[in-house]
Amino acid sequence: MDKDKTNGTIKRLIPLILFVAAFVVYCCFYIFNIDDILDSDISSEMVLGELLSKEHGIISPNWFYSTEIRVLNNQIVFSILLTLFHSYHIARVLSGIILVMIMVGCYYYFCRCAEIESTFAITAIFLVVPFSFEYMQFVLCGLYYIPHISICFLGLGMLLRSRKLYEKGNYVRYWVLMAVMTVFAFIAGLGGPRQIVILYAPLILVSIYVSIRKWKIEYLGGVVSFIGAAAGYLVNSLILNDIYPCTKWGSKEFTRFSAKNIDTVIGGILSVFSYREGKISLSTVSRNGFCFVVVLALLLYFYRFIKKKMEYTEQERITALFFGFSIAIYMFLYTCTDMWYEDRYMLLVFFSAIPIFAFFLKNQVEGKKDIKHKLFVLIIYAALIVDAADVYKEFIKTDKTSDIKEMVSVLEDQEYHAGYATFWDGNANVIVELSNGDIEMYHWEDTYELENPDDLWKWLQDRRHVTEYPKGKVFISLTRDEFDASYFNGKVSDEDMIFENDTYLVYGYASHEEMYRKLGVVLPE
User: Fold this and answer.
1) N-to-C CA span, the chain
2) Domain coordinates of the chain in residue numbers?
């Protein structure tokens, strides 16, 4: 009896140990490498966090947002950490670790609601391991989609929980949860339409589909959540967008259906599962091997699910339907409308593959003697290890900011605290982060169509930059490529150069007025 108990304890501990090990590897990578792979998009969250820490809020009327108003998002964590530590580096490292832990915690909540806690640890590994370039870049490093994925786990988990309360006849707690789901969805909808597309639209389709078949209201949560999210988005469109500047999605149009768009979406699906083009090598074989194994597993799973060749719980059925409706919605948007497409957007659909895999382990593998299923699971994890090692190797070798670090050091030594650069090529907000906020950057979209240095891009920077000029010494940072074909070619003088390396040319001036005078530009009134 004691031996059986010990063996059972070991079996439960091994997945947890493996998950902790995978998480520790990620933390070590993030701590020692994140400064090397920053770009202006990643650093924008930090700059916004600093602004919010000063204003003591979670959204700011003094910030040019991009395509979403950050409400229930990363800036909350950044702002709190910058208030506590006043260090961009500490805030960056801790925020990455905390946000990934939040995502894992939300996944655990889903597993509890879906009654698959026993598979949580072994499947949560996929959340902390870089199974593709896109997942590493946009989730584990950039942290962009962590709030969206976390909200999805919570929303789907609450739907499953509400069903359980309804079945047990616990109607008071059921209606309380309905209210919580509605309020939560409303707050999520305040950020924009993305959360509706990836969570609440497929959720209401699942609820309607199941309710019509059973004529019950046990899945009413999907309907009230959609209503709450839609109300939040209505407030976003009619009120918040006027207060908090944000680039709107704009009106979308139906387009002619084309099989080419299907090819694009399928290519994106393969990409988020690590498919890589190029010559046959250890790197491409390892990544593509993982991709093909996972895609094959999903195809086999849904074939057996549709053909009813396996047993499944009600929670698994709801999750599989949610996954299917999510894919259908994305297919519709990208094949029948002019919705802008990026491969990374598919990450927000295929996070559902993780709970699908968890259900498979719980219902088809756990406690079963079917050696074929267990062998296939081992193949998946073996492919994951090889694939993740290759992704880590690629990112560890990446250093995009060494030239910027060198520049920032010189600027700080010469006591420059304000400057101009482009957002993307010039990495304006990376300069802010690497200087720990000591340098304030005014940034352009590009340097080719400028009429004067203060033609700023209304995108991910302090709104006051367009009305308030920098005080004291000021510099202009240009990449060599920008200089060759830019507005500044022929206007800047070598005598004003304060720094140059293989990538950047930096020109310094005693004041904003002197910069205008030396560039031969009339100072605006």
Assistant:
1) 87
2) 2-396, 402-519
